[in-house]
Amino acid sequence: MAQKTRERGRPRGFDADAALDRAVEVFWRHGYEGTSLTDLTEAMGINRPSLYAAYGNKDELFRRVVARYADIDMAYAREALAQPTAHAVIETFWRANVDALTRPDRPAGCLSIQGGLATGSDDGHVAEFLAASRRTGEAALAERLGRAVAEGDLPAGTDPVALARYVMVVSEGNAVHATAGADRAALNAVVDVALRAIQGL
Fold first, then answer.
1. Which listed site, 55, 110, 170, 195, has its alpha carbon 20 to 30 Å from 163?
2. Which parts of the sequence belong to the HTH tetR-type domain (predicted)?
């Protein structure tokens, strides 16, 4: 009987990762608060029992969505950290970020910004979860820039934590503007200005 229940709840050939990718786009477009379970089940091609069985509740699904987004859509951030110099790390991150924010096959902007802009019934838990996720990335960048200071790649006395925050402020600002319609050229122009601002480092 249990087997029959699973078969009714989960479509034949159900691809959990593909369905999760579709959930990424729904949350990205509408944010956590603006996304309904109906939005999710329709986009993912599954019913509610199947969603609950495969992913848990909406909050648990959102956390898995953010993890998948970080793993796939934010892979460029890990690649940037592997660059040989601090300036290459920063420019690679900013340029790749602009590309990611303006991909024609994805919603404009950034899931980690869009997902928590509107909060309501969750008492701010989603916004805090997303902020913590961004802080993790910022800490990884600060660690990499701190190594650059220790190696003499950045001047002694450079504050790697403040510099990492500056890098993130630029990327997050670009994300907001991308959502508002700024195109790739406009965002890269911002990166040009930001790069000139750190030339003396």
1. 110
2. 13-73
